[in-house]
Queue: 2 jobs
Job 1
Amino acid sequence: MPIVNQNIDFRTARKHNATETSCSICENKNCLINRNIGNFYDSQFINNKNNIKCKKGQQFIIEGAPVNGLFLILKGTVKVFRTGINGREQIVRFAKEGEIIGHRGFGTEEYYSIGAIALQDSVLCYFSKEGLQEALLKNPKFAYDMMLFYANELNRSENKVKSISQMTVRERVIDSLLYIHRKFGDLRGFLNLPLSRKEYADYAGTTEEQVIRVFSALKKENLISAQGKKIGINDIQLLKKEINDHNYFLDT
DNA sequence: CCATTAAATTCAA
DNA sequence: TTGAATTTAATGG
């Protein structure tokens, strides 16, 4: 179970530690800020970021907490979720290095509508709302890149609504596997992100038992293999075909 | 959904 | 590095 709220104060989290990284020497090329670093007129806000270390399982965004900045993943992976009516967790997405977290509430919302938990020990960069707003107003290229990011996110989330409402459980589980595969890739024949069956279920919008049963069926058909949390995809073509046959689209 | 057993992971010595 | 303790997977009711 997730470690509950260790009272992180992001404003006072201090920057004098070994993982402190200045954006100017950061090697994270997926990072939107890093990609635009040459374009900034005024890089003041970059120097005001905080690096936050999160242990595996630590929640760093709590649903309902006030938004006063935005996170970027410097290192590690994270799951972003929303709690449904019956207390069930719906995983919105998995995020890896360079991705932005907590952007939805950025412009107008005052409170987070999502929670986020580190899946591994992770390092996050935290930028204040004020600094970012100023940077966006001053730097059109940066603003444009942000807009593209938002458009992408919207597209993805619209696809997800479709998949959850129209696909069968088996298709949703397969879709989830393909999503993880696309996003995190393979490592020595196994998906490069260890997830529990519960987490697959929360992403696919089903239950742990259903996932386990679909996995068992897929194993019998030799489409996947599994050793604990390590899932191997044996026949990605057939899996893709099963989704494509029903005319569903794959997101990023 | 819950209970049971098997399997895998974690943790600390 | 091991194995005991804890967590997670798998199955069947």
Job 2
Amino acid sequence: MKSGGKATITDVAVLAGVSIKSVSRVINKEPNVREKMRERVMRAVAELDYRPNFSARSLAGMRSFLIGYLFGDPSGDYAHRVEIGILNRCREAGYHLMVEQIDISAPDVAARTAALVTQLRLDGVVLTPPITDFPDVLRVLREAGVPYVRIAPDQDFGDSPVVAMDDAAAAEQLTEHLIGLGHREIGFIKGDPGHSAARLRYEGYCRAMAAHQLKLQPHLVEQGLFSYASGLECARRLLLQPKRPTAIFASNDDMAAAVIAVAHENGIRLPSELSVVGFDDAPIAGVVWPPLTTVRQPIAQMAEAAADILLALTGHKDTGSPPAAASRRDLEYEIKLRQSTAPPPADS
Amino acid sequence: MKSGGKATITDVAVLAGVSIKSVSRVINKEPNVREKMRERVMRAVAELDYRPNFSARSLAGMRSFLIGYLFGDPSGDYAHRVEIGILNRCREAGYHLMVEQIDISAPDVAARTAALVTQLRLDGVVLTPPITDFPDVLRVLREAGVPYVRIAPDQDFGDSPVVAMDDAAAAEQLTEHLIGLGHREIGFIKGDPGHSAARLRYEGYCRAMAAHQLKLQPHLVEQGLFSYASGLECARRLLLQPKRPTAIFASNDDMAAAVIAVAHENGIRLPSELSVVGFDDAPIAGVVWPPLTTVRQPIAQMAEAAADILLALTGHKDTGSPPAAASRRDLEYEIKLRQSTAPPPADS
DNA sequence: CTGAAAGCGCTTACAG
DNA sequence: CTGAAAGCGCTTACAG
């Protein structure tokens, strides 16, 4: 607290009466340091409130102590939860987070990425959809030797660690919940066909239906796009037909919120006349009425796992940053049972 | 594209046949460089795909090209919109964004802030509530000589630039909208009394009511906390009384969503029997039914303005980073008219 | 187990 | 208008 934190490694070395190299060893927790030396240095560090300068460390060494997060989709919640997860780990490890938004519609996505990693010397990069699946970006990172982890990518290229969750299993379990309540006529609103998550969630629904000998009825399955607006359209088609379903599984919460809106609009009582489930546990899930039964994606935890992988890599200074070995880790999701689901009406 | 971007200033100097100092001058757009020199250097830069190393610039110079964003409240949307705003400006200016979450309940908030600014040499810091009003954090930044801008702070300490919006005026205008529709019995749900925004919004409501000779009726004003849960309680008290209001102004969208939920719960039709307005234009505002009439806070724009102030300061390398002069700038809000408001029922 | 030297890639004074 | 020297605060080899 004394000197205002502007002390340098030399100041510490002088005060402790040792070489700067010894101070460096202690700071970096290198082996082969006598306990007495460690104590002397630590005392001087505390006395001067010394904190190593990141730029100098980065310039001289092979680590920058910087993790980058590249995101493309500016829609808030997801990116923010990822950041929180990364920050949780960075804080403990003395790392810092550099955030960069990539304009995914720009032609120079790869060039911008290259600029980032060469200028900033990032020790690792976390990627989320849709950037997870931009071959150009991945190539640039690989060529620059910057390890990266992909969170919930669309495809697993086998090029790097992947942290994800089992969308199909979650969707299956959620469908089972509806079936368990007694529903037989269960509508489904698919997500954007460009996203594999959309496919996997539908797959889970189909599996559960098949397991209970429930036929997939074409008039109960609609093609949405994950957007609220598309949900409105699908919900209208689903609900304004003679034989409407007693439950609807929307592939994400935005579309589920749209289903709820259409139900309100048409005087359909929730959940007594219609059960609705979504997927994601987005902020909306808790503030619509009735609150939405949905699947909570472990986004922050996926980000923490991604950061852990990156931090573990940079820990081994002897080997430099080894190429991040391909691996896959599926984290546990959680079914959030709220009030948007109930048994179907008795007369159905 | 050729050399993979690992070129250094020396490589450029050699290729261009000039000194590294000249390359530096061109890169930094310093004056007194002959046009021919500039061209030669730029050609070499392009040829080698040279990009200056940030660590080296930061270590040698007085600028780090890094803006920091310190946030305390991990609730997503706000922080994320702030980041987007800052990033918009950083991108153009060649700056980068370092994000740090401060645990506002920890005792060492100030110490952690100090660590950040001394280790990272940030050129400027953007602050949002509630950190905007932590005297310890502000003191640390001041002592370290790091310019900072406060976005929508609770109090204006006159210590730095402030970027905000006029909450009272917005609330007044929104109340006018309800009055213009014919409402006279307008309920109000206050926000957390610890936040000045709560006070200002109530003030705006009062002003509009007074301007139309409408009395403030105690049974129509409830004390909320900005949370959805608190909104539920207030809404129940407001709506389950004999003389219920024909419109409710909730001090934020979360509470407004709660009002809507309570209305649905009790079979009160929206907006025909009850109009509801919120504040913030949070993501929920568009996905409840009916969609919420609210005030859009120019969050990203406030962040952009904050970044502009910081970037302008660091631009003057001659003077170093002058202490950021106290100033205040109010940005334009926008009233978002959606379907949650309508004239009151005829018989009221 | 400890240290003296060199160097990371830039910018800052300072000459010319 | 241009350049040679010194130095930012560390870490990397390399000695001892």
